[in-house]
Write a structure and sequence with these properties.
InterPro entries: Thioredoxin-like_fold, Thioredoxin-like_sf
Number of helices: 9
Keywords: Disulfide bond, Isomerase, Membrane, Oxidoreductase, Redox-active center, Signal, Transmembrane, Transmembrane helix
Order of helices and strands: HHEEHEHHHHHEEH
GO molecular function: isomerase activity; oxidoreductase activity
Structural class: alpha+beta
Family: Belongs to the thioredoxin family. DsbA subfamily.
CATH superfamily of one domain: Glutaredoxin
Distance between the termini: 162 Å
Number of strands: 5
Organism: Microlunatus soli
């Protein structure tokens, strides 16, 4: 007889083994089906955005680190600069170079400090401020030449210490101490030391130390500095300069004649001007 088969239950029936148990469905074909193109693009775009965000975050971190390093370096430089400036203005002065000695000078109202031999052939008048940078340049350029002319008796210097630059502190203190030193017979040494140590604040202690280095070792010099003994003389010098319309330092005259470009003189020009005045 022809064999008969059980009726089919359609697509919903499970495959069974010989023992009649259900077999798992084969999903391999479904897994291997390609994803839609839109889903792949979206995933790739999301990954790129994540990488870009990470790169931007890295750059921000690098900029912050660089900024912190720059700020740190600026602070270090600023602190070092402040420290150097404090040391430069508050250090002890160095001893002046070797200078001739001309003896004590009498300090009189409105009268200059005379440095040199009284019978010198040429009188060179100087209006200077010990805190004036141009005066420091002038002395650095031609000071040695002038000292030589003072030493051989050719020139005597009439010094009018001014207080243009720092009238409340260093200029006045240095001018007063200059008068104290001239009274003590070491004016030339002290004058040289003031400009050779240009840039100091010129506290009383610094001025007294410079006096000691210049050969002024008596207590009277220190008392003269601390008490501003010659303050009225400084005021009289300022009045005389105003009356003579001296409005800048250095101002230089030779035998009473103003020298307009003396601030720019070279040593040779000093010698020529002095020779012409003899």
């Amino acid at each position: 007889m022809p064999s008969t088969r059980p009726p089919s239950s359609g697509g919903n029936s499970s495959r069974k083994n010989r023992a009649g148990k259900n077999l798992p469905r084969n999903n391999t074909a479904r897994k291997n089906q390609p994803r839609p193109a839109g889903a792949t693009s979206s995933a790739r775009s999301t990954q790129q955005q994540a990488r870009l965000a990470e790169q931007q975050a890295d750059r921000r971190r690098q900029r912050l680190i660089l900024a912190a390093v720059v700020v740190g370096l600026v602070l270090v430089v600023a602190v070092a600069g402040i420290g150097y400036q404090a040391w430069r203005t508050n250090r002890s002065p160095e001893a002046p170079s070797a200078q001739p000695t001309f003896g004590p000078t009498t300090i009189s109202p409105g009268k200059p400090i005379v440095l040199g031999e009284e019978d010198a052939a040429v009188t060179l008048t100087l209006y200077e401020d010990f805190r004036c940078p141009h005066c420091a340049d002038f002395t650095e350029n031609v000071g040695e030449t002038l000292t030589g002319l003072q030493r051989d008796g050719t020139v005597k210097v009439e010094l009018y210490p001014m207080s243009f630059v720092d009238p409340e502190h260093g200029s006045r203190s240095a001018a007063n101490a200059m008068a104290c030193a001239a009274e003590g017979g070491r004016g030339q040494q002290f004058y040289a030391g003031l400009f050779e140590n240009y840039g100091l604040q010129w506290s009383d202690q610094q001025l007294i130390e410079l006096g000691t280095a210049s050969g002024l070792t008596t207590p009277e010099f220190g008392d003269c500095v601390r008490s501003m003994q010659h303050r009225s003389w400084i005021d009289s010098i300022t009045r005389v300069a105003a009356e003579r319309k001296v409005d800048q330092t250095p101002t230089v005259l030779i035998n009473g004649t103003i020298q307009p470009k003396a601030a720019e003189w070279t040593p040779d020009q000093v010698r020529q001007a002095v020779a012409a005045a003899r």
